[in-house]
């Protein structure tokens, strides 16, 4: 409960109850810090891994597209947390555009790997079903969903948000760019969570994300009963 209730000691005193603290987590969660194309262990700064060469994408300055693709190619889901609705849509559009360029481009090892995960007919079928649920479907969302990419924020109607979540659980959606509203109370099968910015405001540095919000975000990765690990 400490991830959602900051004043547990006060609550315990009011309830005349004992407060227990534990860092136990049934599913291992590995936190890393992205610098360039390498992931570092946050305390020692030791290099944990580096993006493969074919996922180092031009103009992907913070490598978020590469890290999303790395997770998708492994057959897993990824949540990308952004600071605003506009940032969510832009990120989803960027990932979707790159995936489209690969899937419709010349034959390559990356294309073959991506085709093994993203089935075109299945994606079209999912979009058709989505339209039945939400007839006034967001036009950008309709485009990105064809490549297993979506965004999730308060600007979407409830039916759209629920359909995106359902698609993620079913594997028709592999990547969701979301605001912090998705970080609480939603159990989704995400292997990786990416917090793109430490700032809580989309247009200026500061204030930082609170520790409670950060813990809620990263806690979406590696959910018990759904996945075996998270990062």
UniProtKB/TrEMBL annotation:
CDD domains attached to this UniProt entry: SF2_C_Ski2 (cd18795)
Occurrences of domain Helicase C-terminal (ranges): 60-231
PROSITE patterns noted in UniProt: HELICASE_CTER
SUPFAM superfamilies assigned: P-loop containing nucleoside triphosphate hydrolases
Keyword annotations from UniProtKB, A to Z: ATP-binding, Helicase, Hydrolase, Nucleotide-binding
Annotated signal sequence range: none
InterPro entries according to UniProt: Hel308_SKI2-like, Helicase_C-like, P-loop_NTPase
Example of a GO MF term: helicase activity
UniProt-listed Pfam families: Helicase_C (PF00271)
Official protein name in the record: Helicase C-terminal domain-containing protein
Organism: Plectus sambesii
